[in-house]
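Backbones bend. Our protein:
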Amino acid sequence: MISLVSAVIAVTGAVFTAGIGFWWQSRLKSVERQDYMSRYRDSLLWVAFDLQSRIYNILFGHVIDRETSGSAFMQELLIEGTDRQAKYARFSTAYVFAEYLGWAEIFRRDIQFLDLGKNDRNRKVLLCLANISRTLSSARIPGISYRLFRADQRAIGELMIADDSNPGNRWCLGYAEFTRKILQDDELREWTEELFEHIDRAARHPDEATERLLRLQYQLVELVDRLDPDRVRFPAAERTRFPSTRLLAELEPYQVGQLGTPQQGPSE
């Protein structure tokens, strides 16, 4: 009888220990996934903010160039600026696009690896990424400037992922490394060549890029809203949607100054 009781106690203890162990392992995995997701969301948030900020300033410059006798941003730096200023305008603009594509690729890859696609918030983020990709590749939007086919978007994204990063712990090339590789790495230079051509063309023919850039800026702000709904990282004043094309057409030249000032994001 005593041996039977002892056996029952032993079995019960083993089951309890196994249950606690399973619960603890599940808890650790959940915390680990949340940590990954938090880190990835923050990184994607920053690159989305940087890119929308750069696009906002490009669009703002287009209005200044068209509606006033002055020049602003891409016109001022790339067309009329020094060689150093032109290089900055080209490389930094290419970088914020490429870095965004890199983190979008990381997010798509690792959300499957980490089994995070069931979360409603993550699904909405993925929908935003899909909409942005569609806008970049769409042939229905007037003008070819800043049009990148989806496979090309993903290729640039792949090359922007650091070689020594792993699933669940990835990161993108920094600006200095990106610049060095563009100058020395034939593969990255080849895949980004069209992006640089778009930057140059849009600086000289801004109207060809306006519609696509406007849609991208709106969609990127929506992505920022999804990633930072409580406005902890970026307050509402720093995530402004650029006035619509219809509204700009109604503005008198003297009203251009009422559009506000260029956004001063971290990429500027």
